[in-house]
Hints:
With 368 residues, this protein is an alpha/beta fold.
Amino acid sequence: xxxxxxxxxxxxxxxxxGKTKRWMKFxxxxxxxxxxxxxxxxKSKQEMERLNSTCAVEFSSENSSSESTTEEEAHQSDSDxxxxxxxxKTSSSNTKxxxxxxxxxxxxxxxxxxVTDRQAVHLLAATAHSLGHDVGDLTVNRSSIQRxxxxxxxxxxxEVKQRFNPQSPLTxxxxxxxxxxxxxxxxxxxxxxxxxxxTEVEQLLGVPKLASGTGRAQADAVxxxxxxxxxxxxxxxxxxxxxxxxxxxxxxxxxxxxxALEQKVLHFACRHHILEIxxxxxxxxxxxxxxxxxxxxxxxxxxxxxxxxxxxxxxxxAGKNEIKPFKATTIQFAEKNLEVCQPxxxxxxxxxxxxxxxxxTPVRRVHF
Length: 368
């Protein structure tokens, strides 16, 4: 026992010494980092003071030179005055400030074509040079381009908000989506928020990033967009998918938004998601295939082999006795709705496929 105790004490002492060394190293690194930050702040402060003093000296020298010039001109001849005026014009033209080519239209084109700030420097400089301009007289650098783009984006957003003033009741739509983050390679949960109304009113309010996909987070994001656009009193309907985070009777997004609006609203559950549940029961009853995810295996295989299928050879259900009683009404209904502007292409495709299925021919002919 006596031989064991010293060994145990040595182990404890070594462990404590190791922890102490790591702590001292951490404190040393922390002190170095703090010292570097302080040096950077002092350097920045000195640079700003130097620039301010330079500007003050230049300003005072200009004032003194102008005063001395005024006194001298009072005693000089007319020829000397003309010579000084000529020199002052020449110097003012040489110290002319650089021109900015970053107009609202230019920055909007750069954003629309997804051109980075560094790429924009090369493009604008080469374009200006090819047009015969001196690049040195233009403001073409990465930081100026970044500031101009941010400024014009903010102005455009304010103009859109000011112009958007619908008089009809609105329906707010939202649906979460996993998208790549703007910075980095991670995926984040985004929530597009859109409002629609009568007379073709449709406006994207925002695509905020969510910390989580809970009903509370979605409700807060939707209400934040509505408050920012001042549309709370005009919302009369909610359009959403049928997930538990939206339809929960206690903490669902619909209930929370309704409480925040403090008014009654209509609930428009997405028909696509509702029909998916019905179709799932049909597949299960017919034992077509097991559905365990968003992709249905039989449809996926059909899509993969579509290019190998002779699309000119197909058979409709026109000869089926079950179809004949409602063939005419189906074609009439589909053709009538095709005359109306369809906001989505898949709606038009469903109507055209319905006409083809019962043996009719749509206006755009039969094509796949």
